[in-house]
Amino acid sequence: MKRGQKRGDDAEEGPGAPELCKRLRQDDSEDGAVDWRQLPEEILLQIFQYLPLLDRAFASQVCRGWNQTFHTPELWRCFEFELNQPASSYLKATHPDLIKQIIKRHSNHLQYVSFKVDSSTESAEAACDILSQLVNCSLKTLGLISTARPSFMELPKSHFISALTVVFVNSKSLSSLKIDDTPVDDPSLKVLVANNSDTLKLLKMSSCPHVSPAGILCVADQCHGLRELALNYHLLSDELLLALSSERHVHLEHLRIDVVSENPGQQFHSIKKSSWDAMVRHSPKFNLVMYFFLYENEFGPFFGDEVPVTHLYFGRSVSKEVLGHVGLTCPRLVELVVCANGLRPLDEELIRIAERCRQLSAIGLGECEVSCSAFVEFVKMCGGRLTQLSIMEEVLVPDSKYGPDDIHWEVSKHLGRVWFPDMMPTW
Amino acid sequence: MFFLKGDSVNMAPNSIHWFRKGLRLHDNPALQEAVRGADTVRCVYFLDPWFAGSSNLGVHRWRFLLQCLDDLDSNLRKLNSRLFVIRGQPANVFPRLFKEWKISRLTFEYDSEPFGKERDAAIKKLAMEAGVEVIVKISHTLYNLDKITELNGGQPPLTYKRFQTLISRMDPPEMPVETLSNTIMGCCVTPVSEDHGDKYGVPSLEELGFDIEGLPSAVWPGGETEALTRIERHLERKAWVANFERPRMNANSLLASPTGLSPYLRFGCLSCRLFYFKLTDLYRKVKKNNTPPLSLYGQLLWREFFYTAATTNPRFDKMEGNPICVRIPWDKNPEALAKWAEAKTGFPWIDAIMTQLRQEGWIHHLARHAVACFLTRGDLWISWEEGMKVFEELLLDADWSVNAGSWMWLSCSSFFQQFFHCYCPVGFGRRTDPNGDFIRRYLPILRGFPAKYIYDPWNAPDSVQAAAKCIIGVHYPKPMVNHAEASRLNIERMKQIYQQLSRYRGLGKNFTIFFCHAVFFPLACFPGYHHMPDTGHSSGLYRCNVSHDMAGPQHSGNRHRNVYCMLHEYHTVNITYSLYIPIYNILCGVQQATCCTQEEVLQVRGSESRNEILTVKMTLSPPLTSYNGKLQRSRRFMLPVGTSRVW
Q: Residues that bind FAD, according to the entry (chain B) (predicted)?
């Protein structure tokens, strides 16, 4: 109970807690010693909530009462299954006996469930086995998380789908679903929609190659409460945006798009400006997060017209020209990360971005070059609204005005706080 | 200072100087102590399986080491002395040597690394039992590392910026001591027997069982003499460029340079203090007596930083049980690891670097970043520990501390590194060496490819591959991963880990999405992360929780405990970025807290009895330099843990 006492301190005090404490203390003074059996269940439960499972399990062996509390449904709402194989992971796995126990005694209590799966197919299979046994539970959130490589993709599709649909069919009130990098397909999404359309608020399904634009459109059409959506660019269509901005649909909060090229020179479709406009009219505050992992020559269909993107990430090299367009076409931009760019300095591009993107508050530059003066000018224009300014030291090219030693002073002055460029070890 | 025992009281002592690192006669204070007033001195080196804690030293490192020993021996000969190379373990052999040579004084250079400290403590004990006085001197690092830790309130600094702040508050390093000379030797002699060569000579690589057939000559010849030539060249070049910035990387800097110093610093053939003061002098001369900036000593200070971080952490080279290392669910994948280590990834840039490493024992530091990023968070998602072991074997300058520290850094496992940026295994090389000469040099099979395709030969049309006489997939492997897909996945994984650590909500509202700096990971150790009411002032009452410090339970009895960023709650005051805003007047309940200005950890000196909720009254004084007279109160993107989501 040592840890319980410690952590119990910062437990939120429920309305009845002070009184309970008083009661306890009275008992205490009468006997001269604490009678732990008298500890009201509410308090014990409170304490248990702050204990890790293993400690709870030890405590449950103290007496029948504590054991009963141990099995209180509230303590089993949330569970994270960690499925790792010794051959493919350094981390420990959830013990098989515990999994058995949970399925036997607590599966109907589970509401917030996630599976963390290492790179082995066995682990993904084990996750599916557990999923298909969750027949009498009603989940609110489900997350399938591949911690190393997308191991769910290695499974036979039918096996995965049948396990997932068990949850979809039984849950009826799923609100969040995170199934990135899985072989989920259109028919299974239909099952999801048929059973959970009223409750679904969040759907993350980046890199699910078996879903078609029509499949995701069906979700958007039916689930009017959907607020957050993450998917790959090939699923994005004008129809999808219009469906999300239909009158019956709630305001969208987040839309995350991953733009990944599978092979060089891949052609990407474009999205009409009118569809984006409809989206912004319907959900004026929504965040559009875009990750680009493209070769420089694949940016053709992007940034020609205005895009309501708020968070922009260029994971691979991006050309000076494209960045020039960003300043012109992304008025809602809040965050920008450029991992790499050619050897030509990005001076004008940054200044244009400072000029045009009035919401910009965070910027990160990796392998790029910017002259120190242009960078100072950029910071001066943005001023204190730049809350995140993460610039690799090598990015800043000294010029006649500023050297590497005084740039941080100049930038700090305009930011209103002390700032330094990011450094990598010289080794 | 002298501590003489028994019958040796009235006699000048017989000394042993024990070489480990610090393989030099210049700036070697412990060696001077050995000679001072002594009758005889013997310099010994153990060919020691404990060496660098590793048994798998590569042939390049062994050769470098033997060359150092040869050089040491020949320099000692000039002083009518010799080096005694002793086969065996110090703990087994020392007692015999003490007796045989009637030793009353043992000197060696201080080793700050945990296993070195352990070994030295054992030897000290042993020497004491034999009535031998032990003198230890610091000369492998610029500073006394314990002083740095002490100045930081008992914890090693975890950011380089913090480290620099501490350093700037300290006195400059001590001046190097004089080189050992005949004058210093005075009447101290080394008794050398006829069969010295047989008994104590420096062995050759063959004698140690290495196969040296076809071994190319050393690109990095070992030894103090070489080191001293190099430092002169190094400084000449610096003076010639009259530019003290970090040199920008180009195709040339990828190759081993005759002015490179890192292996010499690692083996101690070159004193870091000598280097430090030579740099200072040169800077003053060229820049007309201006005070040199800290950045001048970049290379030396990074080394010092990692030494400081490692000195009290025996698990510094591990993920599990290492309090400063984030646990990342790395993949175990021996085949992929082997491809990386053996230069068969199919990415010419990565393979060329790994080939250079294997052939020469050194690669440029940005090249290290490239291959380390590729192995870990960039592409393969393999543990940094595996990469560290490969470097340990192949890299001449892989100090235990610096090697492990750099790997943790580059894999975003510690030290608060931004992780949004991954080096591209195609683009990074192409920018550095557009022509691809570096690749042609180390991967001759790709020589025939034009510059356009040399970084991604798998994209070359068949005709180009045929003309180059190298078919990708036959003569040279296809790329082992799709970099775009791998880096998309891995960025996501990293974000996930740090979001969970900082209890950041994921796709949060109006908060930063790409910038989950590792700065917040100490929060992971923080049990009760609460949402605080907005006081609307930069000073006010904050509830705060004294938690175990990161060092974990074994340190929980310590007097110093850390209050993790309870005070940085986003509605109130942004401490994370107020690196240098001194925070005064921290009153913790009844206890007086002393507080440093570190960005994320407030040191609280207080009772060691139990964890408790304290009320902290925090007043922010104006920053040292007041920008426009106002304190910025920016919104933070940290949100308390959301209960609706489980990931």
A: 299-306, 397-399
